[in-house]
Amino acid sequence: MAEEAEDMWHIYNLIRVGDVIKASTIRKVVSETSTGTTSSQRVHTMLTIQVESVDFDPGAQELHLKGRNIEENDIVKMGAYHTIDLEPNRKFTLQKTEWDSIDLERLNLALDPAQAADVAAVVLHEGLANVCLITPAMTLTRAKN
Questions:
Q1: Which residues of 73-85 are buried (b: 16+ CB within 10 A; e: fewer)?
Q2: Kind and range of the H or E element at 103?
Q3: In sequence order, what are the residues at sequence separation of 6 or more whose Cβ sits closer than 8 angstroms to the Cβ of residue 88?
Q4: pLDDT at residue 116, rounded to an integer
Q5: Where are the beta strands (DSSP E) in 1-145?
Q6: Could you give the residue range(s) of every CATH 2.30.30.870 domain in the chain?
Q7: Residue 24, φ and ψ in degrees, nearest 5
Q8: Which of 78, 66, 85, 59 is nearest to 18 (CA)?
Q9: 5-111: in CATH 2.30.30.870
Q10: Tell me: the pLDDT tens digits for 119-143?
Q11: What's the pLDDT score for residue 90?
């Protein structure tokens, strides 16, 4: 799950055409009554798609992943197209046929906030010292003495 804009950038660089994404999404469902009238409603569902295109909107901090559904459910048939929108704080599962060294290096970089630290600081106060790393999103205390 991405927690901030920088995480979305890392995810954008991890997902490729052919990868499989599973996430909660909203699907418009149209139903027809016996009299022929139709109504539509938006339904939350869990979908698994094989990614055919990846689009990143940095302004909205969203990834738009288009692909075909590969796990049928009550709402979406197998092979139906859908676009899953990933945004910060939305859980998802990414499956790849192979995680290459570049993917693994990117994951290590994204998961180690110390890699993004802009400044290191030592904060002293009467017998107490804190070693901190300052990133754009947080301050991490690395040592206390």
A1: eeebeeeeebebe
A2: helix 101-111
A3: 2, 3, 4, 5, 7, 8, 61
A4: 64
A5: 20-32, 38-57, 62-69, 81-86, 92-95, 119-125, 128-134, 139-144
A6: 5-111
A7: -75, 140
A8: 66
A9: yes
A10: 888 989 888 999 988 876 667 788 8
A11: 93
Q: What is the pLDDT of residues 1-57, one digit of tens each?
A: 988 777 888 899 999 999 999 999 998 888 888 888 888 899 999 999 999 999 998
Note whether 26 and 87 are within 8 A (CB). no
Q: What Cα–Cα distance (Å) separates residue 58 from each residue in 17, 26, 35, 90, 145? A: 19, 21, 46, 16, 41
Structure tokens at 23: 């996430």
Which residues have CB under 8 Å from 116's CB, separation 6+? 6, 135, 136, 137
- Which two three-digit tokens encode residue 113? 């906030």
Token match 């798609």: residue? 49
| pLDDT tens-digit readout, 105-114 | 888 878 876 6
Residue type, 54: V
DSSP annotation of 90 reads -
- What is the CA angle 93-53-50, rounded to 5? 45
